[in-house]
Amino acid sequence: MWADFKVYEHSVDPGDPYNGTNTWILFPQQMNQGWCTIEDLLAKQGKTILQMTNEYSDQNRLVQLTCDLRIEFRDEHNNSRKLPSRRHYFSFRDWSWTPDLSRKDDDLWEKG
User: Fold this and answer.
1) Cβ neighbour number for residue 76 with a 10 Å cutoff
2) Per residue in 3-24, pLDDT tens?
3) Fewer beta carbons under 10 A from the terminal one: N or C of the chain?
4) Can you tell me the distance from the alpha carbon of 71 to that of 88, in angstroms, rounded to the nearest whole number?
5) 82 - beta bridge partners?
């Protein structure tokens, strides 16, 4: 799994396990959930939550904090399946991640 986080279009490495260096082992019917803190991501670009909240506008909401999520599954025979990537942006007004449905998903995966 790769989570390509960006703050104002500048890449931010979320570290393990979200930068594609770790392998997640999943079993049928297993539920997995992970998290990283927004505060830490912003700090890597010299920003704070308060700054980002104050800077929020309709013009910059799609670039303030984004995540291009890419997932590839491999089975025990090393067959792989890549899911279409999906860009999400974080709304500092609503305090929520929102998928950007206006972008073609496959474009993000191919460029990734």
Assistant:
1) 5
2) 899 999 999 988 877 777 777 7
3) C
4) 14
5) 72
Total count of residues recorded for the chain? 112
> What is the separation of C-alpha 24 from the centre of its chain, rounded to a whole number of angstroms?
16
Q: What is the 3-state secondary structure (H, E, C) of 14-83?
A: CCCCCECCCCCCCCCCCCCCCCCCHHHHHHCCCCCHHHHHHHCCCCCCCCCEEEEEECEEECCCCCEEEC
Taking the C-alpha atoms of residue 20 and residue 10, their distance in angstroms, rounded to an integer, is: 18
CA distance 60 to 1: 27
- The per-residue pLDDT for range 58-86, each reduced to its tens digit, is 999 999 999 998 888 888 898 888 888 88
How far out from the chain centre does Cα 92 lie?
15
Distance, in Å, from the CA atom of 92 to the CA atom of 42, rounded to the nearest integer, reads: 12
Domains of the chain, residue spans: 2-21+36-111
